[in-house]
Design a protein that fits this description.
With about 290 residues, the protein is mostly beta strands. The chain is about 0% helix and about 45% strand. It is built from one helix and 25 strands. Strand 8 and strand 9 form a beta hairpin. The termini are far apart. This is 6-bladed beta-propeller.
Length: about 290
């Protein structure tokens, strides 16, 4: 039975089999700032071995999963705020925090969604197998309007679970005709400024409108994720952060300040690098 509610109405929740913990986070280690790169200044280094999925919210707070599958919340300058510990083990495939009131966590091995509030307290859960007839969901995102998008890899469809839709999809877009004979390797899904971006490591970034209609394909291959800041899409490749204007396609490059960074997130005031040893917090030039 689906147990996920939407909107401002009271949420339907389940009692977890073990209590989920939300606790204050330990203070991270701080190092002296190194020489700036591209005008960036290192202000904090967070010791967090093997950081996983990460996201930024509209207030600039950073959310990062650790090796134990806990979700850690940090203030924009890297100060720890809270930790959410899930009641069951699992692999966190993605975290989406851009929604104004909710955080979505997707556990791909359990095929389960978890909604948290801004205080990192559980709101609701959903078992995706009951929506997809045991299909395999590869990517999920929470839109700013509370709709949830799912990429069902079993039948190659892009589905939207609308607010209040508890047993059926409001939108379903087949992808087989678009993909043709290409063997996709879907990695990431994100809605931003009324467009939906589906990252396929093989063929690039597929762009749809917020009704699921195909618009175009961006030829950026070899990616596992993308980020957004203002009117720019950004990604990391060959030691550079590539910023691409989504309207004009104008591109600019910024060197990655940490050579071993596997992911970079960029907020209004800070840039964050995720490396095997932890997270670097860099102040952006004014």
């Amino acid at each position: 039975m689906l147990l996920l509610g939407y909107g401002s109405q009271a949420q339907t929740t389940t009692q977890p089999s073990a209590p989920a913990a939300v606790r204050p986070a330990a203070q991270p280690a701080t190092v002296q700032p190194a020489a700036p790169a591209a005008g960036l200044t290192l202000v904090r280094s967070i010791t967090l071995p093997k950081p996983g999925s990460a996201s930024l919210d509209r207030r600039g707070n950073l959310y990062v999963t650790d090796a134990q599958n806990n979700l850690r919340q940090f203030a924009p300058d890297g100060q720890p705020l809270a930790v959410y510990s899930p009641p069951l083990p699992g692999h966190t495939a993605s975290v989406e925090a851009w929604n104004t009131t909710k955080i979505l966590v997707f556990y791909d091995d359990r095929q389960e969604l978890q909604l948290l509030d801004r205080f990192m307290a559980p709101i609701a859960t959903a078992r995706l197998s009951e929506l997809t007839d045991n299909g395999m969901v590869r990517a999920v995102t929470l839109a700013p309007d509370d709709n949830i998008w799912l990429l069902n890899e079993s039948n190659l469809t892009l589905n939207q679970l609308g607010r209040g839709q508890q047993q059926r999809f409001a939108i379903s877009t087949p992808l087989d005709l678009l993909l043709g004979r290409t063997k996709p390797d879907f990695r990431f899904l994100r809605e931003y400024q009324n467009n939906l971006y589906l990252v396929d490591r093989t063929s690039g970034i597929w762009v749809f409108d917020n009704l699921g209609n195909y618009r175009k394909r961006l030829p950026y291959t070899g990616l596992s994720w993308v980020g957004f800041r203002g009117n720019e899409l950004y990604y990391v490749q060959a030691g550079q952060v590539h910023f691409v204007d989504v309207y004009t396609a104008k591109e600019r490059l910024v060197p990655v300040p940490a050579p071993d960074a596997t992911q970079v997130l960029v907020g209004e005031q800070f840039l964050y690098t995720l490396s095997p040893g932890g997270v670097g917090v860099y102040r952006l030039p004014q």
